[in-house]
Protein backbone atom coordinates (compact mmCIF):
# COMPACT_ATOMS: atom_id res chain seq x y z
CA UNK A 1 0.00 0.00 0.00
CA UNK A 2 2.85 2.41 0.74
CA UNK A 3 4.08 2.14 -2.84
CA UNK A 4 0.66 3.10 -4.05
CA UNK A 5 0.45 6.04 -1.70
CA UNK A 6 3.75 7.36 -3.01
CA UNK A 7 2.54 7.13 -6.60
CA UNK A 8 0.87 9.91 -8.54
CA UNK A 9 -2.31 7.97 -9.29
CA UNK A 10 -4.34 9.32 -6.36
CA UNK A 11 -7.60 8.26 -7.96
CA UNK A 12 -6.54 4.63 -8.16
CA UNK A 13 -5.37 4.75 -4.54
CA UNK A 14 -8.69 6.09 -3.39
CA UNK A 15 -10.58 3.50 -5.41
CA UNK A 16 -8.51 0.79 -3.75
CA UNK A 17 -9.05 2.15 -0.25
CA UNK A 18 -12.75 2.73 -0.65
CA UNK A 19 -13.14 -0.76 -2.08
CA UNK A 20 -11.40 -2.60 0.73
CA UNK A 21 -14.24 -3.03 3.18
CA UNK A 22 -15.56 -6.59 3.57
CA UNK A 23 -19.31 -7.18 3.84
CA UNK A 24 -20.00 -3.54 3.04
CA UNK A 25 -23.42 -1.98 3.58
CA UNK A 26 -24.69 -4.82 5.75
CA UNK A 27 -25.49 -2.42 8.58
CA UNK A 28 -23.06 -3.28 11.34
CA UNK A 29 -20.42 -5.78 12.31
CA UNK A 30 -17.56 -5.70 9.81
CA UNK A 31 -19.50 -3.61 7.31
CA UNK A 32 -20.12 0.07 6.87
CA UNK A 33 -22.20 1.76 9.55
CA UNK A 34 -24.20 4.99 9.38
CA UNK A 35 -22.75 7.99 11.19
CA UNK A 36 -24.65 11.09 12.30
CA UNK A 37 -22.11 13.77 11.35
CA UNK A 38 -19.53 14.43 8.67
CA UNK A 39 -16.00 13.71 9.78
CA UNK A 40 -13.73 16.56 10.91
CA UNK A 41 -11.51 16.26 7.81
CA UNK A 42 -14.44 16.53 5.38
CA UNK A 43 -15.79 20.09 4.96
CA UNK A 44 -19.54 20.52 4.81
CA UNK A 45 -20.92 22.17 1.71
CA UNK A 46 -23.77 24.65 2.16
CA UNK A 47 -27.20 23.32 1.32
CA UNK A 48 -26.82 19.81 2.77
CA UNK A 49 -29.80 18.65 4.83
CA UNK A 50 -29.72 15.48 6.96
CA UNK A 51 -31.47 12.53 5.29
CA UNK A 52 -32.82 9.27 6.71
CA UNK A 53 -32.51 7.55 3.33
CA UNK A 54 -31.09 4.04 3.33
CA UNK A 55 -28.66 3.05 0.54
CA UNK A 56 -30.70 2.23 -2.58
CA UNK A 57 -29.78 -0.64 -4.84
CA UNK A 58 -27.58 1.33 -7.25
CA UNK A 59 -25.47 2.75 -4.39
CA UNK A 60 -25.00 -0.75 -2.99
CA UNK A 61 -24.07 -1.97 -6.44
CA UNK A 62 -21.49 0.82 -6.67
CA UNK A 63 -19.83 -0.23 -3.43
CA UNK A 64 -20.18 -3.97 -4.01
CA UNK A 65 -18.66 -3.75 -7.49
CA UNK A 66 -15.61 -1.94 -6.13
CA UNK A 67 -15.37 -4.56 -3.39
CA UNK A 68 -15.39 -7.50 -5.73
CA UNK A 69 -12.94 -5.99 -8.20
CA UNK A 70 -10.25 -4.93 -5.74
CA UNK A 71 -10.67 -6.16 -2.19
CA UNK A 72 -10.63 -9.21 0.05
CA UNK A 73 -8.39 -8.54 3.06
CA UNK A 74 -10.52 -9.89 5.84
CA UNK A 75 -11.90 -8.08 8.88
CA UNK A 76 -9.13 -5.57 9.56
CA UNK A 77 -10.83 -2.59 7.89
CA UNK A 78 -13.72 -0.38 8.98
CA UNK A 79 -15.85 2.35 7.52
CA UNK A 80 -19.00 4.40 7.80
CA UNK A 81 -21.32 6.49 5.66
CA UNK A 82 -23.76 9.39 5.77
CA UNK A 83 -26.22 10.84 3.26
CA UNK A 84 -27.73 14.30 2.76
CA UNK A 85 -30.48 15.84 0.66
CA UNK A 86 -29.54 18.88 -1.39
CA UNK A 87 -30.86 21.19 -4.10
CA UNK A 88 -27.34 21.62 -5.44
CA UNK A 89 -26.19 19.86 -8.62
CA UNK A 90 -23.52 17.15 -9.03
CA UNK A 91 -21.30 19.80 -10.62
CA UNK A 92 -21.71 21.95 -7.49
CA UNK A 93 -20.53 18.98 -5.41
CA UNK A 94 -17.52 18.43 -7.67
CA UNK A 95 -16.61 22.12 -7.63
CA UNK A 96 -16.86 22.38 -3.84
CA UNK A 97 -14.96 19.16 -3.10
CA UNK A 98 -12.06 20.17 -5.32
CA UNK A 99 -8.50 18.98 -4.83
CA UNK A 100 -7.33 22.30 -3.36
CA UNK A 101 -10.00 22.41 -0.65
CA UNK A 102 -9.56 18.73 0.19
CA UNK A 103 -5.76 19.10 0.36
CA UNK A 104 -6.26 21.96 2.82
CA UNK A 105 -8.18 19.46 4.97
CA UNK A 106 -5.34 16.92 4.92
CA UNK A 107 -6.17 14.79 1.88
CA UNK A 108 -3.54 13.91 -0.72
CA UNK A 109 -2.80 16.60 -3.28
CA UNK A 110 -3.48 15.90 -6.93
CA UNK A 111 -3.00 17.99 -10.08
CA UNK A 112 -5.96 16.29 -11.74
CA UNK A 113 -9.58 15.87 -10.75
CA UNK A 114 -10.25 12.73 -8.74
CA UNK A 115 -13.91 12.68 -9.82
CA UNK A 116 -14.62 9.79 -12.19
CA UNK A 117 -17.65 8.34 -13.91
CA UNK A 118 -19.82 5.98 -11.88
CA UNK A 119 -19.78 3.63 -14.87
CA UNK A 120 -16.19 2.75 -13.92
CA UNK A 121 -17.72 0.97 -10.94
CA UNK A 122 -20.54 -0.56 -12.97
CA UNK A 123 -23.14 1.93 -11.70
CA UNK A 124 -24.43 3.77 -14.73
CA UNK A 125 -27.11 5.55 -12.68
CA UNK A 126 -24.37 7.56 -10.95
CA UNK A 127 -22.84 10.17 -13.22
CA UNK A 128 -19.95 11.02 -10.92
CA UNK A 129 -17.93 9.65 -8.00
CA UNK A 130 -15.29 11.79 -6.28
CA UNK A 131 -12.44 9.93 -4.56
CA UNK A 132 -9.81 11.06 -2.06
CA UNK A 133 -7.06 9.32 -0.08
CA UNK A 134 -4.52 10.00 2.68
CA UNK A 135 -2.44 8.30 5.39
CA UNK A 136 -2.71 9.27 9.05
CA UNK A 137 -2.08 7.57 12.37
CA UNK A 138 -0.77 4.39 10.81
CA UNK A 139 -3.87 4.05 8.66
CA UNK A 140 -4.68 4.42 4.99
CA UNK A 141 -7.92 6.38 4.62
CA UNK A 142 -10.22 6.66 1.63
CA UNK A 143 -13.25 8.86 0.95
CA UNK A 144 -15.94 8.42 -1.70
CA UNK A 145 -18.47 11.19 -2.42
CA UNK A 146 -21.45 10.19 -4.58
CA UNK A 147 -23.95 12.80 -5.80
CA UNK A 148 -26.99 10.88 -7.07
CA UNK A 149 -30.41 11.83 -8.39
CA UNK A 150 -33.09 11.85 -5.68
CA UNK A 151 -36.71 10.74 -6.01
CA UNK A 152 -37.88 14.34 -5.56
CA UNK A 153 -37.53 16.61 -8.60
CA UNK A 154 -34.86 19.27 -8.33
CA UNK A 155 -33.04 17.47 -5.54
CA UNK A 156 -30.05 15.16 -5.23
CA UNK A 157 -28.76 12.85 -2.52
CA UNK A 158 -25.10 13.25 -1.61
CA UNK A 159 -23.54 10.08 -0.18
CA UNK A 160 -20.26 10.16 1.76
CA UNK A 161 -18.40 6.90 2.47
CA UNK A 162 -15.18 6.97 4.54
CA UNK A 163 -13.04 3.87 5.13
CA UNK A 164 -9.85 3.10 7.05
CA UNK A 165 -7.36 0.26 6.67
CA UNK A 166 -4.17 -0.56 8.54
CA UNK A 167 -1.26 0.89 6.56
CA UNK A 168 0.85 -1.60 4.62
CA UNK A 169 -1.71 -4.34 5.19
CA UNK A 170 -1.32 -7.12 2.63
CA UNK A 171 -3.28 -6.68 -0.60
CA UNK A 172 -5.73 -9.15 -1.98
CA UNK A 173 -3.74 -12.18 -3.12
CA UNK A 174 -6.66 -14.21 -4.43
CA UNK A 175 -5.91 -15.86 -7.75
CA UNK A 176 -8.05 -15.21 -10.77
CA UNK A 177 -8.47 -18.97 -10.88
CA UNK A 178 -10.18 -19.23 -7.49
CA UNK A 179 -13.54 -21.02 -7.57
CA UNK A 180 -15.47 -17.80 -6.82
CA UNK A 181 -13.99 -16.00 -9.79
CA UNK A 182 -14.38 -18.98 -12.07
CA UNK A 183 -18.02 -19.09 -11.10
CA UNK A 184 -18.41 -15.35 -11.63
CA UNK A 185 -17.04 -15.43 -15.16
CA UNK A 186 -18.47 -18.72 -16.39
CA UNK A 187 -20.80 -18.75 -19.35
CA UNK A 188 -21.84 -22.38 -18.84
CA UNK A 189 -25.60 -22.45 -18.53
CA UNK A 190 -27.10 -23.99 -15.40
CA UNK A 191 -30.85 -24.74 -15.38
CA UNK A 192 -32.45 -22.15 -13.11
CA UNK A 193 -34.78 -22.83 -10.16
CA UNK A 194 -38.52 -22.56 -10.79
CA UNK A 195 -37.86 -22.73 -14.55
CA UNK A 196 -37.40 -18.96 -14.72
CA UNK A 197 -35.06 -19.43 -17.69
CA UNK A 198 -38.04 -20.72 -19.69
CA UNK A 199 -40.23 -17.67 -19.02
CA UNK A 200 -40.73 -14.58 -21.20
CA UNK A 201 -38.24 -11.74 -20.82
CA UNK A 202 -39.58 -8.59 -19.13
CA UNK A 203 -39.82 -5.45 -21.23
CA UNK A 204 -40.49 -1.75 -20.72
CA UNK A 205 -41.11 0.00 -17.39
CA UNK A 206 -44.83 -0.41 -16.71
CA UNK A 207 -45.16 -1.28 -13.04
CA UNK A 208 -48.34 -3.32 -13.42
CA UNK A 209 -46.57 -5.55 -15.93
CA UNK A 210 -43.27 -5.93 -14.07
CA UNK A 211 -44.92 -6.24 -10.64
CA UNK A 212 -48.43 -7.52 -11.41
CA UNK A 213 -51.26 -6.66 -9.00
CA UNK A 214 -51.94 -10.40 -8.65
CA UNK A 215 -49.33 -13.18 -8.61
CA UNK A 216 -51.02 -16.53 -8.08
CA UNK A 217 -52.75 -16.31 -4.70
CA UNK A 218 -50.73 -13.23 -3.75
CA UNK A 219 -52.18 -9.72 -4.00
CA UNK A 220 -49.96 -6.67 -4.24
CA UNK A 221 -50.73 -4.41 -1.28
CA UNK A 222 -48.10 -1.69 -1.48
CA UNK A 223 -45.58 0.00 -3.77
CA UNK A 224 -42.81 2.36 -2.71
CA UNK A 225 -39.42 3.71 -3.65
CA UNK A 226 -36.39 4.27 -1.45
CA UNK A 227 -37.35 6.84 1.17
CA UNK A 228 -41.06 7.06 0.22
CA UNK A 229 -44.28 5.78 1.71
CA UNK A 230 -46.83 3.79 -0.24
CA UNK A 231 -47.36 5.11 -3.77
CA UNK A 232 -49.93 4.65 -6.49
CA UNK A 233 -48.72 3.29 -9.81
CA UNK A 234 -49.28 6.63 -11.51
CA UNK A 235 -47.18 8.40 -8.85
CA UNK A 236 -44.13 6.32 -9.81
CA UNK A 237 -44.36 7.44 -13.44
CA UNK A 238 -43.12 5.86 -16.62
CA UNK A 239 -39.37 5.74 -15.87
CA UNK A 240 -37.83 3.61 -13.14
CA UNK A 241 -34.66 5.36 -11.97
CA UNK A 242 -34.18 3.45 -8.72
CA UNK A 243 -35.41 0.36 -6.89
CA UNK A 244 -39.14 -0.27 -6.55
CA UNK A 245 -40.38 -2.23 -3.55
CA UNK A 246 -43.66 -4.14 -3.36
CA UNK A 247 -45.49 -6.07 -0.66
CA UNK A 248 -47.61 -9.09 -1.60
CA UNK A 249 -49.97 -10.99 0.69
CA UNK A 250 -51.86 -14.28 0.59
CA UNK A 251 -53.59 -14.90 3.91
CA UNK A 252 -50.93 -14.61 6.62
CA UNK A 253 -48.03 -15.10 4.18
CA UNK A 254 -46.24 -11.98 2.93
CA UNK A 255 -43.60 -11.54 0.24
CA UNK A 256 -41.31 -8.52 0.02
CA UNK A 257 -40.24 -7.88 -3.59
CA UNK A 258 -37.57 -5.60 -5.04
CA UNK A 259 -37.40 -4.57 -8.70
CA UNK A 260 -34.48 -2.86 -10.38
CA UNK A 261 -34.42 -1.79 -14.02
CA UNK A 262 -30.73 -1.38 -14.76
CA UNK A 263 -28.79 0.24 -17.56
CA UNK A 264 -27.12 -3.01 -18.60
CA UNK A 265 -27.10 -6.77 -18.09
CA UNK A 266 -23.84 -6.36 -16.14
CA UNK A 267 -25.46 -3.90 -13.73
CA UNK A 268 -28.29 -6.35 -13.07
CA UNK A 269 -25.91 -9.24 -12.45
CA UNK A 270 -23.75 -7.07 -10.19
CA UNK A 271 -26.86 -6.59 -8.05
CA UNK A 272 -26.56 -10.25 -7.07
CA UNK A 273 -23.31 -9.33 -5.31
CA UNK A 274 -25.28 -6.91 -3.14
CA UNK A 275 -27.81 -9.63 -2.43
CA UNK A 276 -24.98 -12.02 -1.54
CA UNK A 277 -23.70 -9.58 1.06
CA UNK A 278 -27.13 -8.86 2.51
CA UNK A 279 -28.67 -12.33 2.45
CA UNK A 280 -25.78 -14.81 2.31
CA UNK A 281 -23.07 -13.23 4.46
CA UNK A 282 -20.98 -12.37 1.41
CA UNK A 283 -20.49 -16.03 0.41
CA UNK A 284 -21.96 -16.98 -2.95
CA UNK A 285 -23.12 -20.63 -3.04
CA UNK A 286 -21.25 -23.15 -5.17
CA UNK A 287 -24.26 -25.48 -5.42
CA UNK A 288 -26.06 -24.62 -8.71
CA UNK A 289 -29.39 -25.29 -7.03
CA UNK A 290 -28.79 -22.16 -4.98
CA UNK A 291 -26.73 -19.87 -7.17
CA UNK A 292 -25.26 -19.16 -10.61
CA UNK A 293 -23.55 -16.09 -12.02
CA UNK A 294 -22.47 -15.02 -15.48
CA UNK A 295 -25.42 -16.62 -17.25
CA UNK A 296 -28.97 -15.78 -18.28
CA UNK A 297 -30.61 -15.83 -15.86
CA UNK A 298 -28.25 -15.44 -12.90
CA UNK A 299 -29.72 -16.17 -9.48
CA UNK A 300 -29.22 -16.63 -5.74
CA UNK A 301 -31.36 -18.60 -3.30
CA UNK A 302 -30.93 -18.52 0.47
CA UNK A 303 -32.94 -20.46 3.06
CA UNK A 304 -32.14 -19.68 6.70
CA UNK A 305 -33.70 -18.73 10.03
CA UNK A 306 -34.75 -15.37 8.56
CA UNK A 307 -36.95 -17.04 5.97
CA UNK A 308 -36.50 -17.78 2.27
CA UNK A 309 -34.91 -15.41 -0.25
CA UNK A 310 -34.55 -15.62 -4.02
CA UNK A 311 -32.92 -13.02 -6.29
CA UNK A 312 -32.62 -13.35 -10.06
CA UNK A 313 -31.92 -11.42 -13.23
CA UNK A 314 -33.66 -11.31 -16.59
CA UNK A 315 -31.55 -9.30 -18.99
CA UNK A 316 -31.10 -5.86 -17.43
CA UNK A 317 -33.91 -6.48 -14.91
CA UNK A 318 -33.25 -7.51 -11.31
CA UNK A 319 -35.88 -9.11 -9.07
CA UNK A 320 -35.78 -10.42 -5.52
CA UNK A 321 -38.43 -11.98 -3.28
CA UNK A 322 -38.19 -12.57 0.46
CA UNK A 323 -40.67 -14.70 2.41
CA UNK A 324 -40.18 -14.50 6.17
CA UNK A 325 -42.56 -17.42 6.67
CA UNK A 326 -40.28 -19.76 4.74
CA UNK A 327 -39.64 -21.69 1.56
CA UNK A 328 -43.19 -22.87 0.87
CA UNK A 329 -44.46 -19.30 0.63
CA UNK A 330 -41.51 -18.28 -1.56
CA UNK A 331 -42.03 -21.29 -3.85
CA UNK A 332 -45.71 -20.52 -4.36
CA UNK A 333 -44.96 -16.89 -5.20
CA UNK A 334 -41.99 -17.34 -7.56
CA UNK A 335 -43.64 -20.25 -9.39
CA UNK A 336 -46.53 -17.92 -10.23
CA UNK A 337 -44.40 -14.89 -11.10
CA UNK A 338 -44.38 -14.14 -14.85
CA UNK A 339 -40.61 -13.55 -15.38
Spell out the key features of this protein.
disordered N terminus, 28% strand, alpha+beta, 7-stranded mixed beta sheet, Protein Transport Mog1p, Chain A, 339 residues, 2 domains
**Rounded mean pLDDT score:** 77
Beta-strand portion reads 25-35%
Structural class: alpha+beta
Q: What global shape is seen?
A: globular
Spans where pLDDT lies below 50 across 5 or more residues: 1-30, 65-76, 169-188
Q: State the major sheet.
A: 8 strands, antiparallel
- The largest beta-sheet arranges its strands as 8-9-10-11-15-14-13-12
Radius of gyration: 20 Å
What count of structural domains? 2
The SSE string, one letter per element, is HHEEHEHHEEEEHHEEHEEHEEEEH
Helix fraction? Answer: 10-25%
Overall strand count:
15
Q: Count every helix, treating DSSP H or I runs of 4 or more residues as helices.
A: 10
First CA to last CA: what distance? 45 Å
Task: Give the helices and strands, then pairings.
Blueprint: H1 2-5, H2 10-19, E1 32-34, E2 49-50, H3 57-70, E3 78-86, H4 90-96, H5 99-104, E4 115-116, E5 129-136, E6 139-149, E7 156-166, H6 179-185, H7 207-210, E8 214-215, E9 218-225, H8 233-236, E10 244-250, E11 253-261, H9 265-279, E12 291-292, E13 299-304, E14 307-314, E15 317-323, H10 327-336
Parallel strand pairs: 1-3
Antiparallel strand pairs: 2-3, 3-7, 4-5, 5-6, 6-7, 8-9, 9-10, 10-11, 11-15, 12-13, 13-14, 14-15
Amino acid sequence: MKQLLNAAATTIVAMTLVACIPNALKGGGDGLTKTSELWSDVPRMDGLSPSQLEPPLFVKVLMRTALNEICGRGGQDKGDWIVFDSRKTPDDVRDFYNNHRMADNGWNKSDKSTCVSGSQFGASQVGMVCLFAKSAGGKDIGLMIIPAQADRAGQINVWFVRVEAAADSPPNTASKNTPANEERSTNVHTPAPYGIDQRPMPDGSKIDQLLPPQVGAYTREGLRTAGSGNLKVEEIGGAIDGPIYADYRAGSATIFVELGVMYSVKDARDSLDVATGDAAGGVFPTDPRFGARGQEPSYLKVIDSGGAFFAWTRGKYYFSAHAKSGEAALDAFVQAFPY
